[in-house]
Specification:
The complex is a heterodimer of chains A (115) and B (224). Chain A is built from seven helices and no strands. Chain A is mostly helical. Chain A has two domains: 66 residues, no CATH class; 48 residues, no CATH class. In chain A, α1 crosses α2 and α1 packs across α3. The N and C termini of chain A lie far apart (48 Å). Chain B folds into two domains: 58 residues, no CATH class; 151 residues, no CATH class. Chain B is globular and about 55 Å long. Chain B contains twelve helices and no strands. Chain B is an all-alpha fold. Classes of the chains: A mainly alpha (115), B mainly alpha (224). The interface between A and B is large, with 75 and 105 residues.
Chain lengths: 115, 224
């Protein structure tokens, strides 16, 4: 039953992250805290990558389908989107173009324009 | 009827994934098409979102362990971080902040309501993290989810063409900008274009998720 070891680690770190987020009333989601802590646990050899790799890859590969239920919730906000279409789509497009190009230019300057 | 939501989600996603396997076009993004199709089905049949969610919520529950699992690709990219640490860390601080501020202020300028501003602010980070952040800061997680996916689709569709049009050749700069702007969907495209850009993009996506969830709540307080 090798699967359970990986699941215990993943859900254990999720639980720790959520608990820390709640106890200290942190604005960071518990799952992000769990991810950061697990990364450090790998770096300091507390947890072996091989022990969680398969289970983690299963979750990551199947992540797309998990976005659908919250996405469908958009139907409850149809009125809001219609009345706010200009700010929503204007900001979406402008922010996309600005962030992509300015960030790329900025990093290129940092590297000194090599490659 | 309890299983309707779960069945519908998996069945519709399966069909669109099959279609996407045949024709890999950005406008055939299976997640986006599934959301539109299921929302239309619920609307036409009169099935309530709450009824749909009864069993469908089990899928979104797994976003928790999925985000924790992102520690694996993050850890595996530690060599990339070492090689380009300055560009990566300074670039993420710059790009991550710019993504939030530009979305927030353009929306505000165009008359966006407060819930829209809060929902659009985390739009450049990976969906799983963005949903949690939106919830924490008082946005509408469902709206955030859709805006995040749309931002990803833009990057997937025209990100490379835009970087080319602005003559950005630096491979690290291209990957970083793509990952910070268009998370997983942008990464999926640029990794086919160049391996180094793809690795930096994936890394930038993960680190920007952490960076944004750290600073956004405080930034929002300052902005309001």
């Amino acid at each position: 039953m090798p699967m359970y070891k990986g699941l215990v680690i993943i859900f254990g770190f999720l639980f720790i992250g959520e608990t820390l987020s709640e106890i200290f009333n942190l604005p960071i989601p518990g799952n992000v805290i769990g991810m950061v802590l697990l990364t450090f646990a790998f770096l300091f050899n507390i947890i072996k990558v091989e022990d969680v790799e398969r289970e983690a890859e299963f979750f990551i590969k199947n992540m797309s389908v998990m976005f659908i239920p919250p996405g469908v919730g958009i139907i409850s906000y149809w009125g809001l989107i219609k009345s706010q279409a200009v700010p929503i789509f204007g900001a979406l497009i402008m922010s996309f173009a600005l962030t992509l190009i300015l960030t790329a230019k900025f990093v290129e300057l940092l590297s000194g324009g090599k490659e | 009827m309890n299983s309707i939501g779960l069945f519908l989600t998996i069945a519709v996603f399966y069909l669109f994934s099959k279609l996407y396997e045949k024709k890999r076009a950005f406008y055939l993004n299976p997640v986006m098409l599934s959301i539109i199709t299921i929302a239309s089905i619920l609307h036409l049949t009169g099935i309530k979102y709450e009824t749909y969610m009864k069993s469908a919520k089990i899928l979104s529950f797994f976003l928790g362990p999925a985000v924790v699992s992102l520690a694996i690709p993050l850890y595996k990219q530690r060599e990339t971080i070492k090689g380009y640490s300055r560009q990566i860390f300074v670039g993420i601080a710059f790009g991550g902040t710019l993504a939030i501020l530009s979305a927030f202020y353009v929306a505000k300028l165009l008359g966006g309501s407060e819930e829209v501003l809060l929902s659009i602010a985390p739009k450049s980070i990976t969906t799983a993290i963005a949903i949690g952040v939106s919830e924490k800061i008082g946005g509408i997680p469902s709206l955030t989810a859709v805006l995040v996916i749309l931002t990803g689709i833009f990057g997937n569709a025209i990100g490379i063409e835009m970087l080319n049009a602005f003559k950005i050749k630096d491979r690290v700069a291209r990957g970083l900008a793509m990952g910070v702007t268009s998370h997983g969907l942008g990464t999926a495209r640029i990794i086919l274009n160049d391996e180094l850009s793809g690795a930096v993009s994936g890394l930038a996506m993960a680190l920007n998720g952490v960076f944004t969830s750290l600073i956004l709540p405080y930034l929002i307080e300052l902005l309001q």
